[in-house]
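### Sample
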Amino acid sequence: MLSRDQLRLYKLIWERFVASQMAPAVLDTMSVDLDHNGLTFRANGSKVKFPGFMKVYVEGKDDQLEEKDKMLPDLKEGDTVLSKDIEPEQHFTQPPPRYTEARLVKTLEELGIGRPSTYAPTLDTIQKRGYVALDNKRFTPTELGEIVLNLIIEFFPEIINVEFTAKMEKELDSVEEGTIEWVRIIDSFYQDFAKRVEKAEAEMQEVEIEPEYAGVDCEECGHPMVYKMGRYGKFMACSNFPDCRNTKPIVKDIGVKCPSCHEGNIVERKSKKRRIFTAVIVFQSVNSSLGTNQLKESVQNAKICL
């Protein structure tokens, strides 16, 4: 004879095994609007359309089910129901999340744009040209990027179209397979493209980007420093250019004391390839430069100094 606990365990194992061999359940997502004295209340949940394995086994949950996951009874229009609880909620429309590198590559794949060999150069190019900047591992458009995008949309709407790019990729695949001559594709594309380039050269106006002040003064002449976009990204430059050519890199203080002098803070620096390659001390009198692995150790050792 099995004890009570042994029987419950055996029953659980048997039901779970049988359920694994059964058809999946089919649930309908429901949203029910309830009217009371001219006020409308909404209940969200699910309704079982086909129970499947749920006839035998339903996995328990420790956490209380959210309202949207609750099972709703079988209701028809005009039914009278009793309310147990009404929870007021306020929602605001949220913009879609910004792209990470991985999500952008996945989106390019889904839209048929580019190929594996072009994904990395594409991400590198939009950063090198200053169209986007990485903020917490997410791409944020720069002012330059928004200006360039608006001009391309105005003068080259077909090229910026996602469907056009995907279509061009398919045609290039056909050229590689030998089913279409590349001359015909280039000719059909270039005729309209050349006209649009001529129109853009004649009508596109120069856009002046307003200076963004950095909040610090130039240590050489006293004029305010402004942010500039260069070949290798954003940097600070004196607003008194060209009389003063002082420039400074933008550094990020990570809040870790120098392990050599325990006075200056370590800051992040970027290489020409826009990679964070080291952390250095803000005070030039202290000679301390740490690699990434050493930096992790210094963070632990410097906690006592923070």
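Confidence is low (pLDDT under 50) at residues 61-68, 280-306. This sample (Topo IA-type catalytic domain-containing protein) is used throughout the tutorial notebook.
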